[in-house]
Amino acid sequence: MARQRRNLLKRLLTVHTGTGLATALVSQPLFAESSKYNLTRGVTDISNQVYDLHMLIFYICCAIAAVVFGVMFYSIFKHRKSKGAVAANFHESTKVEVVWTVIPVIILILMAIPATKTLVAMEDTSQSEITIKITGSQWKWHYATLAKMWSSFH
Q1: Which runs of E-coded beta strand occur in the chain?
Q2: 20 to 30 A Cα–Cα from 70, which one of 22, 28, 98, 151?
Q3: Digit-coded pLDDT (tens) for 64-86
Q4: Is 89 left (phi over 0), alpha (psi -120 to 50) or beta?
Q5: Comparing C-alpha atoms, which of 37, 46, 14 is closest to residue 122?
Q6: Per-residue pLDDT tens for 123-146?
Q7: Phi first, then psi: what are they for 52, rounded to 5°?
C-alpha cells in the first residue's frame, strides 16, 4: 500500500512539474510583449523594426530552450539508472560533433538575415529630415544639428 502511494505521488509530482514547466515555457513568451521588462514599441519605422527583430530573436531563443530542455528532461527520465539504462559511447563520434556544430551555425545564419536587414535600414540616412550629431564627453552630452539650426550642451 505504501509503495502504491509513493508511486502515485511520484506520478503526480511528475505531471505537476511537467505541467508547470510547460505552462511557464508557453506563457512567458506570450506575455513578453506587454511586460514592463521588455523593450517598448517605438514610434518610427526603424524602432518598430528593432522591436520586431528583438521579439523574433526572443521567440527563437525560447523555442531553442524548450527543445533543449525537453530533450534533456526526456533523456533524464527515459534513461535513468533505475530503469537499467546503459550509457552509449559517443566518444570521438564525428557525426555527433558535426551535427552539434552545424545546427547552431544554421540557426545563427537564419538569425543574422533579419538582423542584417534591420542594421542596413538603420544605416540608410538618405531620407532623413534632420541629422543630429551627439557627442558624449565623460558626464555630459553635446547635441547639435549639422544644419547649425541649434546646439545644446547638457
Answers
A1: 132-137, 140-145, 151-153
A2: 98
A3: 999 999 999 988 888 877 777 77
A4: beta
A5: 46
A6: 887 877 777 888 888 888 888 887
A7: -60, -40
Nearest 10 degrees: CA dihedral of 24, 64, 91, 94? 170
* Ramachandran area for residue 88 (φ above 0: left; ψ -120 to 50: alpha; else beta): beta
- CA 87 to chain CA mean position, Å: 32
Contact in structure between 154 and 141 (CB atoms under 8 Å): yes
User: 108-127: per-residue pLDDT in tens?
Assistant: 999 999 999 999 988 887 87
Number of CB atoms found within 10 A of residue 90's CB: 9
Kindly state the average pLDDT of the residues 36-48. 85
What backbone torsions phi and psi does residue 43 show, to the nearest 5 degrees? -95, -35
Dig out the grid coordinates for 64 from the structure: 531553442
